[in-house]
Amino acid sequence: MKRLTPWLVPIVQVLIAVGFILFVYAVSWFGETYTFKATSYEPYDPFFGDFVYLEYDSFEGRQDVESGTVYVSFKTGDDGYATIDRVSSRPFFGGTRANYYDRQVYIDDMSSYRVAEEETSAIEGAKTFEVDVDVAPWGMVRPHDLRSTEAETE
């Protein structure tokens, strides 16, 4: 047993790390992909960070819940973009945890997008985007594709 003991801790740590990685990718394997329309409230600046901070217009409006923690589900609207389907103060299967304040739903995991180095030239200076987000049946979200929509409107 003494020979196994020094290797046990690193092996367990590696297994836990691999488990977390698989859990994150399981969102894409088992989840549904939605496309959201987003606006950047702080333009991308490669000198001050590699994140774009996003707001979603479809998350605004009067909801029939109290301010605080809420759970939401999504549906695809007629225009092809995702909107909120259901908002509840109580957890439900498929519900994503969010915060509701000042008539706005905030989902922490969707409020910022890490920009990969090869994407920077395509989004620099842009303010409107399309974001593909995988939503797992257990409520976890994973944004994975960010595209500028400004070239389309010019």
TL;DR of this structure?
The chain is an alpha+beta fold and 154 residues long. It is built from 3 helices and 9 strands, in the order αβββββββαββα. The chain has helices at 5-30, 120-123, 150-153; strands at 32-42, 51-56, 68-76, 82-88, 96-101, 104-106, 112-114, 128-135, 141-148.
Characteristic terms for this protein:
single chain, 154 residues, alpha+beta, five-stranded antiparallel sheet, 3 helices, globular, GDYXXLXY domain-containing protein, membrane, GDYXXLXY, transmembrane, transmembrane helix
Task: Please tell me about this protein's structure.
The chain is of the alpha+beta class and 154 residues long. 22% of the residues lie in helices and 40% in strands. Strands 7-2-1-8-9 form a 5-stranded antiparallel beta sheet. β5 (96-101) and β6 (104-106) form a beta hairpin. The protein is globular. The protein starts with a helix and ends with a helix. Keywords: Membrane, Transmembrane, Transmembrane helix. This is GDYXXLXY domain-containing protein. The chain crosses the membrane at residues 7-30.
The biggest sheet, with number of strands, parallel, antiparallel or mixed sense and barrel status, is: 5 strands, antiparallel
Question: How many strands appear in the DSSP assignment?
Answer: 9
The helix/strand series, from N terminus to C terminus, equals HEEEEEEEHEEH
Strand residue content: 35-45%
Mean pLDDT: 84
